[in-house]
Amino acid sequence: MALTGKRVTQDEIKSKGNIFHELWKSNPHQIPSLTPTTIQNCQTHDGEVGSMGSVLLWNYSLDGKDCVAKTLVKDINEAKKSVTFEVLEGDLMEQYKTFVMHVHVDKHGSNNLVTWTVEYEKLSPNVPDPDTLMDFYKKVAKDIETPHLRN
After folding, report:
1. Buried b (16+ CB within 10 A) or exposed e, 112-125
2. Is 114 within 8 Å of 11 (Cβ atoms)?
3. Mean pLDDT, contiguous 10-residue spans, the chain (151 residues)
4. Which of 18, 72, 85, 93 has its C-alpha lying 20 to 30 A from 58's C-alpha?
5. Which residues neighbour 4 within 8 Å (Cβ) at sequence distance 6 or greater?
6. 3-state DSSP assignment of residue 121
């Protein structure tokens, strides 16, 4: 069984893609107000929000468990409307040696397509692939798709 892996999930949203991208890039502290059952808190730990190298602290619920993550904003690509986060500390690091999440928005007809990609390395072969986390990201996308973000 391979220790490294990659998972991808996509969600079509009717929300404006640039607003969704800006939320993850420049306003992640607003995400908990849109997703209170999945993400409860986001705080800037270091650096300036909206810039590469900033560090964010997240409180979230996964599989009925309260979790935390400290993430580094590793990359922001305006042209591709993508933001890359690398998990530095927290619950995920109990099972994974590395964990990187990319959120990317593309145009898909009259709607937008959000693609969540995670790249990871498990600490052992007994660690499950992060499939429940991919379901978590799908729920986050649907929670964010509110009347505040619609056309």
Report:
1. bebbbbbbbebeee
2. yes
3. 90 83 93 93 94 97 96 96 97 97 88 94 95 94 69 45
4. 18
5. 119, 120, 121, 122
6. strand
